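G., before I forget:
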Amino acid sequence: MGGVPIFSKAQLMRTKENTLLHLDGDPNWEAFDAPALVGETLRFVSGDKTGNRFKMKYFRDQEQNLVARVWFGPVTEGPPEHAHGGSIAAVLDEVLGLTAWAAGHPVVVGNLNVSFRQLLPIQIVVQVTTRLISVKGRKIMIHGEVSSLDGIVYATGEALCIKISTENLKTAENRVEG
Amino acid sequence: MGGVPIFSKAQLMRTKENTLLHLDGDPNWEAFDAPALVGETLRFVSGDKTGNRFKMKYFRDQEQNLVARVWFGPVTEGPPEHAHGGSIAAVLDEVLGLTAWAAGHPVVVGNLNVSFRQLLPIQIVVQVTTRLISVKGRKIMIHGEVSSLDGIVYATGEALCIKISTENLKTAENRVEG
């Protein structure tokens, strides 16, 4: 990474004006209900109620792959006017983990590897595409990419997800609640 | 990841009551002024003004290593009552990048690798310790660990940082502002 921003200020202003329309995704995609699958508590990323961090919608594309449209809000700032690397990593963590869930595998993310390619301007809508790479025993490898809607790659990510039984999940919750 | 929480609800309540005191760090440490070094814009993590995501203080320990004390607030939630993996990755991204800056190397994080070991209960103060592993040309490798104050390791991280010239930084800003 270390690339310089690719928008002029004027371009960026025009992009910001129309950007939220892009949260609705492609007309050929199907909305994907993440909370119905994994619960309502993903408050840090997609469950953001403030609208200042992320606005985010999940879909399945025509090949049934999970895809997310994400608006990085003002408080995701790291470098001036650009997303904090940590906010990009946070989005990838959630989207890649959910990709395994959406494919029928309840998981936790065991390892997350993020490569930052280009500074990501805040307050525009970008896309996270995903691909399930392999399922080997309890280990599921997912790849993903954060890019602009015209194909500039801002970051790539790999998540090694570990399958859990839903029984384990309930035990974990009981340990906290009991 | 994969681990079950290690606190009973009663233990967790007691921990939460006293936890913010631990943000002040060890009396032998020296406060470290991150904004003075990298600017005021790290809004997503240490620059959080809401107090709902992170409360965070940086120090240098007796060996001059950068160390951070971090409180994960209510909106960092992912799994019920536990930190979203993405919030842990976000903290590691910032702390490991700053470790390079604090050692005199202006950098961007090129790659971040996070291993999740254990679910991290929210609303307690934890510690991020760091170590500069190597400097090879423009590449600086930093390791770090997120742990409880009594030594439970929640996550480990490695950041490959890429040195930038401050001249490049200015150019990047001009491209956005111009």
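Confidence is low (pLDDT under 50) at residues 171-178 of chain A. Helices of chain A lie at 9-18, 34-38, 85-102, 166-177.

More on Monday.
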